[in-house]
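User: Hi! I have a protein structure encoded as tokens and I'd like to know what sequence might fold into it. I'm fairly new to this, so please keep things simple.
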């Protein structure tokens, strides 16, 4: 496993992170979830990503139990706040009240006294940004949060936060967690250039485009039983790529992966890691062998000719519109 700095901060993260959206506490049994976490640790993954809202807070509980007994200083635990975690009006958003209460709930569930990275899971248009950033800064000063980041924010929103932080002396954002893959490249136009300039790293999710880039979804055929496309919690998010024109082009990546000595999944993960602004790529898994296979993408260098061939194959079906930086609300 290779490691990179998280943006311009001193924090090192594993090139491949383990995330538990749609798996822990919902899609797979706890014993299987623990087996995947332990496989990740065995393969050198030290960065673990979750959120309070995943599986209605159960994902954090499962991750906390899976990491119990692991030397705390040897892992980086990242979680998020924004989406509703209860029925009340203040059980959501980025108000000071919800941030403080959500963080304390996350700490209890994760069985830790601090998180390495606390992220605003979306931008909150109903709360003054100054209030949000001051609450984050207070948590940093209390030692309960080491670094702060955001997820799925636009370049303008990130720029606003940086300006306020600089003016008010708050800790700056060090990371952004966007969707990024061979098929979804919308951050390249505006988000990445700003973040490169400001020292913000990307921790990208869905590098496999919800599994589409593994090649297991075939044009003209129904999704495999038990796949992400058949899971009610994630099927809405994957639908945009289940068109035959997309699936046909994805199948054309198979010989390119074979030529490079990689599986299609390894090729897709290695592709996002070629972007120097990417600090880490998040993978999920329902079986330990998936973890062991995907981590082999760490450290892989793809030559310019192969990168060009990938662009030629996928070009007509790639989404690049910066206006779509923020993913649909079906993915918390």
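Assistant: Happy to help. Inverse folding works backwards from shape to sequence: for each of the 332 positions I chose a residue that suits the local structure. Here it is:
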């Amino acid at each position: 496993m290779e490691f990179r700095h998280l943006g311009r901060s001193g924090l090192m993260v594993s090139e491949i992170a383990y995330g538990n959206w749609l798996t822990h506490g919902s899609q797979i049994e706890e014993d299987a979830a623990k087996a995947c976490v332990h496989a990740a640790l065995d393969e050198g993954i030290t960065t673990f990503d979750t959120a309070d809202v995943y599986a209605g807070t159960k994902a954090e509980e499962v991750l906390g139990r899976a990491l119990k007994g692991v030397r705390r200083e040897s892992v980086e635990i990242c979680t998020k706040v924004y989406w509703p975690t209860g029925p009340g009006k203040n059980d959501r958003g980025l108000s000071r009240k919800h941030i403080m209460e959500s963080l304390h709930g996350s700490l209890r569930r994760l069985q830790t006294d601090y998180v390495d990275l606390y992220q605003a899971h979306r931008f909150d248009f109903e709360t003054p940004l100054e209030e949000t950033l001051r609450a984050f800064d207070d948590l940093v000063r209390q030692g309960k949060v080491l670094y702060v980041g955001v997820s799925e924010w636009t370049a303008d929103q990130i720029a606003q936060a940086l300006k306020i932080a600089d003016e008010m002396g708050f800790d700056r954002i060090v990371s952004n967690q966007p969707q990024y893959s061979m098929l979804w490249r919308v951050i390249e136009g505006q988000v990445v250039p700003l973040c490169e300039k400001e020292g913000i790293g990307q921790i990208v999710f869905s590098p496999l485009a919800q599994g589409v880039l593994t090649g297991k979804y075939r044009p003209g055929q129904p999704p495999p039983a038990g796949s992400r496309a058949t899971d009610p919690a994630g099927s809405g998010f994957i639908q945009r790529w289940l068109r035959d024109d997309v699936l046909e082009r994805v199948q054309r990546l198979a010989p390119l992966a074979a030529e490079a000595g990689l599986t299609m999944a390894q090729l897709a993960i290695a592709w996002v890691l070629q972007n120097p602004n990417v600090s880490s790529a998040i993978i999920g898994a329902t079986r330990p062998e998936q973890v062991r296979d995907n981590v082999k993408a760490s450290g892989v260098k793809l030559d310019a000719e192969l990168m060009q061939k990938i662009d030629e194959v996928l070009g007509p079906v790639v989404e690049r519109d910066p206006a779509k930086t923020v993913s649909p609300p079906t993915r918390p």
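A useful reference point when you look it over: Residues 327-332 have pLDDT under 50 and may be disordered. Feel free to ask if any position seems puzzling.
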